Amino acid sequence: MRRVAYLHVVLRRSRRAVMWLVVPTAATALLLWTLPWPWWILLAVDLVLVAWAYGTWRRLMPYGLPGGVEALTLNADRQLLLYFSDTAKNAPDEGLQARVLDGTCLGDAFLTLVWRSESAKRTRTLFLLPDMMIADDWRRLRILLQHGREMVETAGES
Q1: What pTM value is reported for the model?
Q2: How far is it, in rounded angstroms, from Cα 15 to Cα 26?
Q3: 9 partner at 20 to 30 Å CA-CA among 22, 64, 97, 125?
Q4: Which residues contact 79 (CB under 8 A, 6 or more apart)?
């Protein structure tokens, strides 16, 4: 019987993500006021910018929102189980099954988890930052994504 390594991570809100989105948006909104346009156009552009930032926030950081990702379980075979806010406290097998794709980007400062469920036609991306989870979970998640397949092959040989 082959035993596959897995990791269960419960996500939390990120202060760093707020800063990554709020600071550039505020700087852009202020910089627009240096343009020689009428004030009402500048105000309209600023409102569009704020709406864009809010939409981006909801798309990239859905934690805590209705239908947002609350937790995930990843195994060494790159099989992913996503738990959404309405199913996170239910049984472990009630998550959405998906597969992590090769487009996943691992970095020290952030991680973009590209995934697709079996029933979906398009891929989705989950943006993760180190302060969204316990430090040990962040380290283990990066190791599992980087070396998971090697761990499975090594376990199969022994």
Answers
A1: 0.74
A2: 16
A3: 22
A4: 97, 98, 99, 100
Tokens of 56: 């981006």
Q: Report the C-alpha gap between 78 and 106 in whole angstroms.
A: 14
Distance CA 86, CA 76 (A): 26
Which residues are 99's β-sheet partners? 79, 116
Give the angle 103-122-75 at the CA atoms, nearest 5°: 50
Beta-bridged to residue 105, according to DSSP, are: 112
Q: Residue with structure tokens 């239910």? A: 90
The C-alpha atoms of residue 62 and residue 8 are separated, in whole angstroms, by 18
What is the distance between the alpha carbons of residues 26 and 154, in angstroms, rounded to a whole number? 49
| CB half-sphere exposure, 88, CA atoms < 13 A | 18
